[in-house]
Amino acid sequence: MFNFEQNPSYFMAKSTKIKGHLLYNALPHVWRELKHENKIEGIYKRKATYISWMVFYAMPPLIWLQKVFFGKRIKAEDLSKKQPIFILGHWRSGTTHLHYLFHKDPQFGTLSNYQSFLFNISILSKSWLKILLSPLMPETRPQDNVKVDPDLPAEEEQPLSVMSTKTGFHTWSFPSNKSYFDKYNTFKGVSEAEKKAWQEDYQTVLKNISYFNDGKRLVLKNPHNTSRVKELLELYPESKFIFIHRNPYDVFVSTRHLMFRAVRVQFLEFVSHEAIEDMIFYFFTHTMKKYIAERDLIPKANLLEVSFDQMEADSGGQIERMYKELNLPGYAAAKPNFDEYLVSVKNYKKNKFRNIRPATKERINKEWKFAFDEWGYEIEQY
Question: Is residue 7 part of a domain?
Answer without folding.
Answer: no
